[in-house]
Each structure stands twice: as structure tokens, then as C-alpha cells.
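Data card: per-record layout.
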Amino acid sequence: MANRPVFVARESAPFYRTMTIDFDWNSGFAKVQKQKNITAMHNEFLRRKPDKKILEISSKSMQEYGNDLSAFFLQKYVPELGKKVPVECVFQSAKTFQKGGPYKDILEVSPREAKRDGRLVTSGMLTGFTFENRVYPLEPKTIFYDYIYINALLENEKLVEEILKYDAFTDIEFNPSKSINCQAKAAACFVGLYRAGLVEKVKDFDTFAELFGVNSKGQSVQSSPKKEESKISEVIKEGNWIKHKIYGKGKIVKVEKTSLMVDFRMVGKKKIGMEWCLKNCEVLK
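The structure for this 285-residue chain is written out next.
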């Protein structure tokens, strides 16, 4: 047996949730063995969540567009070069260390070469990321990777159209005990942000970071608890109506500690984050 994460889109921060799926593991490094594991993992997920659509994002994917959405193939425009390069190359080239970097020449090599560049392990401690003359923070841990992946997606309308057909995402190569950044998680995050009507805020890093409760330096930004409690008590009540950017008008039918159950006229009942609702939904009187 083995277990791997499935990342499911949701409409409140951090815009995804993780489900750990146990399945029978097929050992071996051959592509066909990895595809057997993808099938086993997806079948188990769909047994538990039959109403969801799931997509494998990796070079091992057997689904249409699964390869195209991989960081090895998804292209990000780099103004400095005047052309698009794979997201993997952008990410690796932006790494900045105590003893070197960013290594911009990595933008010109293949994604596989970029990931294996020896300087990435001999330049000391990672201190941040530098892309297009701007420095990006290390915290939250995946914020820079997610930012460039999501913006690369926005540069490809066809891939946006396709990815929005899915609710959950996997990457058979990703093992959370060994890695941090994951293209499947970034994809789920994008879908969650899009469904929440927040996609315009991801283009600028400052507003993107705010969606996750931090500023552009990665520092936590929190509102006064008393002020927030007062605001919540005024507008978040069962029976009140709100207007969602995507789902339209809906009636609050249940108030929980950090979330709401809203019955929308267009799509029925949906669970949304209370904090997100306060910031992004119009309260109707």
C-alpha cells in the first residue's frame, strides 16, 4: 500500500484542500507502472468522491492536457527574453542563494537540465527568488511557485478552459515527504481562485499574496479580532442574502465557526469561507 495527496479546489483560502488517498502500489520506474498507480489512486478517489472530476498533471498523465499542464511543458512569458519558457525553468532560474544566483542562464536550458543544475545544491542556503528584477519571499513556502504557475496558466486561454472542467488534481511524481512545490496543488489553487471570482487578483504579486493573508514580503497580515467579530455579527446571519461574483444571489442557511453554507439560486448549496465572504461578496438588504 501507498498513499499520495489529491488536491481539491475550494473557494476560500488557501483555495484547495488535501485528501490523502491510500491505494495498492505498483513498484518499478517504468512509465506503465506509474500509470497503473495513477489509475489506482484516481479510482479510489472517485469511489469516495464520485461527483468530482480528477486530472493527473505530469509527464506520465494518460489524460488530454495532463502533459501540457506539467511545469515541464507549461510556458511562462519572460519579458527579459521576449519569449516563453517552461515554468520549471523560470522557477529554478529564480532561486537566489547565500553564495549565488539567480542563475538566469537556466532559462535557456531544458526543464530537466534546469532541475539538475549543480549550482542549485552548492550555492548555500536558499534566501528567496528573483524574477524580472523583483525579489520574492520564501514564505508561505510555495507562494512563488504557485504565483508563476497560475500566471503561466492565464497566458494560455485553452488550458484555462480545460482545467476548469476539473475539481481535483494529482501528480504521481510528487511525494510530500520529499518535496514542497507541486503543480497539482497550484492547479487546484487556480481553479479555487477562479471559481471564487478572484482570478484578476493573481496577476499582481501584492494582491496575490494578500489572498493568503500575507504581504509582499511574506509577513502575516491580520485584522483586529474585535473589529472582525463585530463585522461578522452584523452581516453573517442565517437568513441573510449575499451576492457571489460567480454564483449570483444566495441565502445563508447555516453559520459555522469559519465558514457558511449558502443556498444559491443558480447552483444550489455551497460552502464558502466566512472571511472570504466578508471581503468578496456583496451583502444584500
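Known properties of this structure: The chain has three domains: 2-70+157-210, 75-136, 228-284. Residues 244 and 251 are 11 Å apart (CA to CA).

See the next section for split statistics.
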